[in-house]
Specification:
The chain has 292 residues and is an alpha/beta fold. It has 10 helices and 10 strands. The protein has 2 domains: 248 residues, 3-Layer(aba) Sandwich (Rossmann fold); 32 residues, no CATH class. The longest helix has 26 residues.
Length: 292
C-alpha cells in the first residue's frame, strides 16, 4: 500500500516540466552515483572475496582462500575501466496504463535516471526501447543529450504485444560486459525471457530487472462492476470487483513469487516497483546495493 506522502511526491515530480528536467531533479537532489557493480569488476586492485555463483568465471576462483573454508570463493577487484550500462525499456502496450502515472512514464524515470547517474559517474550509458512496436536506441554521451533523449521518450506511445526474444537480439551479440537493466511490468515474461537473462549472466554481465506495476494493479482498490480491457489485445471482461479481489491478490502474490524465483535462477537482481511510490527507492536499491 502506498501512503499519501509517496503519491504526493510522484504527482509533484510528474508536474515538473519535461522528462529530462524531472530526471535531473530526481538524481541530483539525492546525489545518486553509479552502480556498486562499477567498483566490483576484474582487472584492478583486490577488493574482497565472495561466494562462487553459477555462471562465474572459474579463473577468478581463489583456490587458496577456498581451501581454508567449506565453499569456493571468488576474487573481486576494483574496476579499472568504465562500466557499460545498458537500459532496456519495455515499450509494449501494457506499459501504457497506470495511476498516478503510467508505467511507461515511471519506467522512463527509472531508465533515464539510471543512465544519467551512470554518465555522471563517468560510465558509458545506453538506452534501448524494445519489446513493443515503438523502438529506439540512444547513447548518453554527455549531459547535454538528456533533453533530446527525454523528448524522444516522451513522444513514444507504448503499443503492440510483448516480444522479449526480439528485444534481446540487440544485446546478445555485444562483446563488452557491464550492467544490463530491464524495465518492464513482466506481464508477458516467459521462460525464454529468463533464459535470455541467464545467457547474459553467463556472458559476464551484471543483470537487474525493475518490475513496474501500477498502484491500482497492486491494490485492486475497486468497487462494483469493473471492465478489463487488454492493452495488448484480447476480449474485454466485466466482473464484480469485490467478488474477485481476494483471488486477484492471491494471484498477484503468486506472480511476485514466480518472478523472484525466476530471477534467482537467472542470477538477476529483481526490484519490485510501484508507480505510486517515489522512484528514488528503486533507483537507490539499484544504484547503491550490490548485485548478485
Amino acid at each position: 500500500m502506498v501512503d499519501s506522502a509517496h503519491q504526493s511526491h510522484v504527482e509533484q515530480l510528474a508536474r515538473l516540466g519535461r522528462l529530462h528536467l524531472q530526471v535531473r531533479r530526481l538524481i541530483e537532489a539525492e546525489e545518486l552515483g553509479s552502480h556498486a557493480a562499477r567498483g566490483r569488476r576484474g582487472g584492478g586492485d583486490f577488493f574482497e572475496h565472495r561466494a562462487f555463483r553459477s555462471g562465474d568465471e572459474v579463473g577468478r576462483i581463489d583456490w587458496r582462500a577456498s581451501a581454508r573454508g567449506d565453499q569456493l570463493l571468488m576474487r573481486e577487484r576494483r574496476a579499472e575501466r568504465q562500466l557499460r550500462v545498458v537500459v532496456m525499456l519495455d515499450s509494449s502496450g501494457s506499459m501504457s496504463t497506470g495511476e498516478p502515472v503510467t508505467k511507461w512514464r515511471y519506467g522512463c524515470w527509472l531508465g533515464l535516471g539510471t543512465a544519467y547517474a551512470a554518465r555522471r559517474a563517468g560510465d558509458r550509458a545506453e538506452l534501448l526501447v524494445r519489446a513493443g512496436e515503438p523502438e529506439g536506441n540512444w547513447s548518453l554521451r554527455s549531459i547535454g543529450d538528456m533533453e533530446h533523449i527525454g523528448a524522444s521518450l516522451e513522444a513514444i506511445e507504448p503499443s503492440g504485444t510483448t516480444d522479449f526474444l526480439a528485444a534481446f537480439e540487440g544485446v546478445a551479440g555485444r562483446q563488452s560486459r557491464g550492467l544490463l537493466v530491464v524495465v518492464s511490468d513482466l506481464l508477458e515474461a516467459d521462460e525464454a525471457f529468463w533464459s535470455a537473462l541467464t545467457e547474459q549472466r553467463l556472458r559476464g554481465w551484471h543483470v537487474a530487472v525493475l518490475r513496474v506495476l501500477a498502484r491500482d494493479e497492486l491494490t485492486f482498490d475497486h468497487r462494483g462492476p469493473i471492465r478489463f480491457e487488454g492493452a495488448e489485445g484480447g476480449e474485454p471482461l466485466t466482473v464484480d470487483a469485490g467478488a474477485v479481489r481476494v483471488a486477484y491478490i492471491e494471484e498477484l502474490h503468486r506472480f511476485d513469487a514466480e518472478c523472484e524465483a525466476a530471477a534467482a535462477r537467472a542470477g538477476a537482481r529483481l526490484i519490485l516497483c510501484d508507480t505510486g511510490e517515489h522512484p528514488i527507492r528503486p533507483l537507490r536499491a539499484l544504484l547503491e546495493e550490490p548485485l548478485p
